[in-house]
From TrEMBL:
Name recorded for this polypeptide: Chloramphenicol acetyltransferase-like domain-containing protein
Ranges that cross the membrane: none
Lineage start: Eukaryota, Viridiplantae, Streptophyta, Embryophyta, Tracheophyta
Pfam family, one: Transferase
UniProt KW keywords: Acyltransferase, Transferase
């Protein structure tokens, strides 16, 4: 049977209280110009653990949950008022209280059946917006939600919130606020909306510079998306290997990044027959690097991009690559943040991005972002925590970047690496013996997340 996602309703959820006239225009920060992706997409999957006494009970339960989601979203948007607005342009959000675009869809299969062997082509149909580099333009809603209801009344809540105002950390803050409201928590999450005053934007020079940089990293052909899952026991071995070769206290993100970088270089070399220099980038969260003025609840793209390089003559060892990753990330420190806020901020930012702008066709490239430790598996709307969390899928896309999203697993310290890569290189990568000694390829989330809730 072909699985289909059918839209059954669409509406806009407005904030419970109107936004004051003095707050009707929200100016974005200079850092909001850095990321080209239109949305910060995420899907949270929840099983139905209360089966009721029959279809009538299940329908009533579903109706109650949908109304709870809408009511709590409405309340949350009052405090996160820019997220209830529309895109005006690349400098401003219109806080016009249009509200969040809210879609309900039905999926003609059970959640368990989907999770047995997730169809990655189907994943993007769970979102209210199409993935890709288009979208989130003038007039579009900042916040878009789709609630997908499976035959068993399990649900998948998918969010596409404009990347013009939200990074992974801010998405986590919004979800904490929404889920807390849905549960009736007395601990209200109040977002810090002060980023534009710390990183003011008067023009679009960074956007223009970033578009040149990202444009040089785009690939044309066909993208392949695969999940490489590293359980905590395998990561302990990998960390021990790096530590045994002189790296002090390697983190799981560092060792997974280093191993995937090493294996991606090998795949690219096998594809073309020779080895080129390789660049790795990592997204760095600035919140902890400016803790005196930025809180974890700060909204915006409070991130920067750092890069490290491995030359064609270098001997590729995991510990060396871990040190390169760590060294590049360590440069984005409190002093760096102070400098980009100073009189020479533009010069500092341009110099920081220069290596990536020059990458072009002369070097291989792979980018990373980590959504680990952001608490997405704690997102409880009142009927339990999610059993699986994922993002959008680039599989089959003709325009793409070699890019990896690192995410937590439901239990333990494992990592799910969502790897988007040229399909020829991916075919080589997924047969790399060193990589597959530590990772499982596209395992069922029922297996990796130790699920016994069905």
């Amino acid at each position: 049977m072909m699985v289909k996602v059918e839209i059954v309703s669409k509406e806009n959820i407005k904030p419970s209280s109107p936004t004051p006239q003095t707050l009707k225009s929200f100016k974005l920060s200079i850092l909001d110009q850095l990321i080209p992706a239109p949305y910060a997409p995420i899907i949270l999957f929840y099983p139905n653990q209360d089966h009721g006494d029959g279809a009538t009970d299940l329908d009533h339960q579903l109706h109650t949950r949908l109304e709870t989601l809408k009511d709590s979203l409405s309340k949350t948007l009052t405090d996160f008022y820019p997220l209830a607005g529309t895109i005006k342009d690349d400098l401003y959000i219109d806080c016009d209280d249009v509200g969040a675009y809210f879609v309900v869809a039905r999926v003609n299969t059970r959640l368990r059946d989907f999770l047995e062997n997730p169809d990655l082509e189907l994943v993007n149909h769970f979102f209210p917006c199409a993935p890709g580099f288009n979208g989130s333009v003038a007039g579009c809603c900042v916040t878009n939600v789709q609630v997908n209801v499976f035959e068993c009344h399990g649900i998948a809540i998918a969010l596409c919130i404009s990347h013009k105002i939200l990074d992974g950390g801010a998405l986590s803050t919004f979800l904490r606020g929404w889920t807390g409201s849905s549960r009736g928590s007395k601990d209200v999450v109040i977002p810090n909306l002060g980023a534009p005053s710390l990183f003011p934007a008067n023009d679009l020079w960074l956007q223009d510079s970033a578009m040149v940089m990202w444009g040089s990293l785009l690939k044309f052909g066909k993208c392949s998306t695969r999940r490489f899952v590293f359980d905590s026991s395998k990561l302990a071995v990998l960390k021990a290997e790096a530590a045994g070769n002189g790296v002090k206290d390697p983190t799981r993100v560092e060792v997974v990044s280093a191993l995937l970088w090493k294996c991606a270089m090998a795949a690219a070399e096998e594809k073309v027959g020779f080895r080129k220099p390789s660049m790795l980038s990592h997204v760095v969260n600035l919140r902890k690097r400016l803790a005196s003025t930025l809180s974890e609840d700060s909204i915006g793209n409070l991130i920067w991009i750092t890069s490290s390089e491995c030359g064609p003559e270098s001997e590729i060892r995991i510990n060396d690559l871990v040190e390169r990753v760590r060294g590049s990330v360590s440069k984005i420190n409190g002093e760096f943040v102070k400098n980009i806020r100073g009189d020479k901020g533009r010069e500092v930012m341009e110099e920081s991005l220069e290596k990536l702008k020059d990458c072009g066709t002369t070097k291989d490239y792979i980018g990373f972002t980590s959504w680990c430790k952001m608490g997405f598996y704690e997102a409880d709307f009142g009927w339990g925590k999610p059993i699986w969390v994922c993002g959008s899928v680039s599989d089959g896309s003709p325009v793409f970047m070699n890019f990896v999203v690192l995410m937590d697993m439901r239990f333990g310290d494992g990592i799910e690496a969502w790897v988007n890569m040229d399909e020829q290189e991916m075919e080589i990568l997924q047969h790399n013996q060193e990589l597959m000694a530590f990772a499982s390829l596209d395992p069922s989330p029922l297996q990796t997340n130790q699920l016994s809730v069905f």
